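#struct-help
A.M.: can someone run this one for me? Single chain, 219 residues.
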Amino acid sequence: MKTSIFSQISIDGKLTLGAGQSSKPLFSLFNNQDIEYIHKFRGKVDGIMVGKNTISTDDPYLTNRFEENKNPIRIIPTRRMDIPMDSHVLNDEGRTIIVTTENGQDEYKINMLRERNVECLICGKDEVDFSLLNYRLETEFGITSLMVEGGGFLNWHVFKQDLVDEIILMQLPIIIGGASNITLVDGAGYNELEFAKRFKVAEVLPQDNYTLLRYLKAI
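D.P.: on it. Structure tokens below:
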């Protein structure tokens, strides 16, 4: 499976204007053509993954509103299934997969979700096993290309398990700052350079409102 991290960030790598805030205000700096680029990229992949916090703060649809019938399957990992049941991704006609853990599964919620045609997967005991998840997404659902539009902690888990093939960033020419703010990759991080994940620059393309940066996994 090809996994692409896709994100909108500031020059200093921030995803929002503060801890716990929605990323939506940053999108006001894009024009319609920029938004169309994001949505059409969704139309090129089989699946799109965001974390539970993105669902809680932004409540996105995660669809491609510029092209009909080109919506990816939505994948939401949540260790304890603490996802708002009134979220758009759980209540529209799009296809959604909720991923949780053995110790975090809630049979009542699972049955409720299945009544809404939302599929549920158990991957991992205490933490979501993203390597196992990718394998099951490919073998059971035919997903061979995955777009990850996650926050810092989801991105960290995907990087930590060495699953990222490509990084695509729409870097806005702004500085946000904030020591507690969400960055592209949070989590524990690496304290030794030899363990850091390495990528090579594949594309740098200045646009009117942002710079497109694309990196490929170094081999």
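A.M.: thanks! Helices lie at 24-27, 32-42, 52-58, 107-115, 130-141, 152-160.
D.P.: also worth noting: DSSP finds six helices and nine strands in the chain.
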